[in-house]
Design a protein that fits this description.
Pfam families: Porin_3. Belongs to the eukaryotic mitochondrial porin (TC 1.B.8.1) family. The protein is mainly beta. The strands form two sheets. A 15-stranded antiparallel β-sheet has the order 3-4-5-6-7-8-9-10-11-12-13-14-15-16-17, covered by helices on one side. The chain contains one helix and 17 strands. The chain is globular and about 45 Å long. A hairpin with a 3-residue loop joins strand 14 and strand 15.
Amino acid sequence: MRKSSLGSYFDIGKRARDVLYSDYAEPPEMQFHYKYFDWNVDLSCELEQAVPGLRTVLECTVPDSGKVELQYSNKHVGITGSVGLLANLEEELVPAATVSGLIGTKVLSLGGSVAVDLSSREIERLNAGLNMSGPYLAASLIMGRVSPSHHNNMRGDEDSFDTVRGSFYVDVNPLTRSAIAAEVNHSISENVTSFMLGAQHALLPSTLIKARLDSYGKAGALIQQDFCKKFYVTMAAEVNFRGRELTIPKLGFSMALCP
């Protein structure tokens, strides 16, 4: 999508999420199992500018989910609609439709998103967010609810619109891609607050390292190597320091090809 375009609702808080979550090889709801290994395959295809401002995205995570998405964006408005299959906690694929919108400027924008289970006609997710962004700083605030069948995606009371999530991003040194990010989640009904801190730094132009720590005692780190800006290899690890017994670190390995 053009750089002058506003983007979509899912770009709210994206710079902080990229530091805290991207490339950590977190497993989806459904995955293939083989002995000590869990694995899945992600496929994505984008058709740029079929119509000015319109983009078509096809995404599939085997065996977890798949969707077809249409995105329209100009300087002040971004609209996204998608239809696909999503996995729930019972490892069942349910048809779902999502509609989201964003309005504002590159500096300040406001948006909302709603996801509906087409089989039960119930609202699965409902969110509203505010985003402020500058060349080196970004901050966002999202408030939302999620149904019990998808409660692991947001902390808090799933039956009410009471989960608040704030994030903050600072670009420390663009030359070395050094950045820090923080995220705070708060459940109003349960009065429970959690947070996550993370950072990234490029050791070399083609080598990126990341680290993160949350309030539940989970620490993670990764190293990513790219080859010719087309092929990416990532190794990630996570360990829980606050469990009753120190658990064996989880290791993840991923490869990404971006033609």
